């Protein structure tokens, strides 16, 4: 049996992003996986009780999701509110769902302080990007889930095919 893929709800067309929008990823593989029942959809922030819309949030002081998981950094909203605990709960929820449903791979929206895996923002709310993982992406990786950004769907397809041929 082929494994399931955890996928960011915004990539599936759900209007769950902080700004109340979706960011649908249109790709034939998505439809194939959906038809085969291989997609498990989550918005980590909403799973932790965060509302839509909500103020933008970033990991403070150019830190990463790994730093947040280690208790060395915080996630803050543009308003200054500390939402670290919500982001930690979101990460725990995503890891739990991945375990419960047998997801070996995750396809997550890049740039998010939760789901980013290629880049996140530097915590200054100035639009500056930096390499790094969001809190959920870091937690999933630490739990052994292979994480791919929405820009890496072709690599995910190749990885799944590689594993299927073994």
UniProtKB/TrEMBL annotation:
<protein>
    <submittedName>
        <fullName>Purine-nucleoside phosphorylase</fullName>
    </submittedName>
</protein>
<dbReference type="Pfam" id="PF04463">
    <property type="entry name" value="2-thiour_desulf"/>
</dbReference>
<dbReference type="InterPro" id="IPR007553">
    <property type="entry name" value="2-thiour_desulf"/>
</dbReference>
């Amino acid at each position: 049996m082929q494994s399931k893929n955890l996928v960011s709800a915004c990539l599936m067309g759900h209007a769950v992003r902080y700004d109340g929008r979706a960011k649908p990823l249109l790709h034939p593989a998505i439809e194939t996986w959906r038809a085969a029942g291989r997609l498990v959809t989550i918005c980590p922030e909403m799973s932790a009780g965060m509302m839509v819309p909500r103020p933008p949030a970033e990991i403070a002081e150019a830190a990463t999701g790994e730093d947040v998981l280690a208790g060395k950094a915080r996630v803050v909203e543009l308003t200054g509110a500390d939402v670290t605990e919500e982001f930690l709960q979101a990460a725990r929820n995503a890891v739990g769902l991945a375990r419960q449903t047998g997801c070996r791979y995750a396809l997550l929206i890049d740039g998010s302080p939760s789901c980013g895996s290629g880049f996140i923002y530097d915590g200054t709310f100035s639009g500056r990007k930096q390499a790094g993982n969001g809190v959920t992406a870091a937690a999933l990786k630490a739990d052994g889930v292979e994480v791919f950004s929405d820009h890496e769907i072709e690599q995910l397809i190749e990885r799944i095919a590689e594993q299927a041929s073994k």
